[in-house]
Amino acid sequence: MGSLSAWHWLVVLIAAVLLFGSSKLPQMARSLGQSARVLKAEVRGMKADEEAAARPAEGEPRS
């Protein structure tokens, strides 16, 4: 399988322009970026919650 070459990306870009139109592409890219930021923040929050749960609470003896 391998990674996509420049020609593959060009075909994908042309298909996206034909399907969605050039005026909607910036809006879609912005929305995708916002979604990625929200996902990253949620993952970071879940990691913090797991780390907090793994630490023993103050006053509790360690086993």
Sum this structure up briefly.
The protein has helices spanning 6-20, 25-54. The chain is an all-alpha fold.
List the helices and strands and how they pair.
Layout: H1 6-20, H2 25-54
Summarize the structure in words.
There is one protein chain. The protein has 63 residues and is mainly alpha-helical. The protein has a domain at 22-53. The chain is built from two helices and no strands. It has helices at residues 6-20, 25-54. The termini are far apart. 0% of the residues are buried. The model has no long low-confidence stretch (mean pLDDT 86).
Structural class: mainly alpha
- Coarse morphology: elongated
DSSP strand tally: 0
Fraction of residues in H or I helices: over 70%
Number of helices: 2
Cα(first) to Cα(last) distance is 48 Å
Q: How would you sum up the major sheet? A: none
Order of helices and strands: HH
Rg: 22 Å
Mean pLDDT over all positions: 86
Give the low-pLDDT segments.
none
| Assembly context of the chains | single chain
Strand content: under 5%
Supply the key terms:
63 residues; mainly alpha; 2 helices; 71% helix; 0% strand
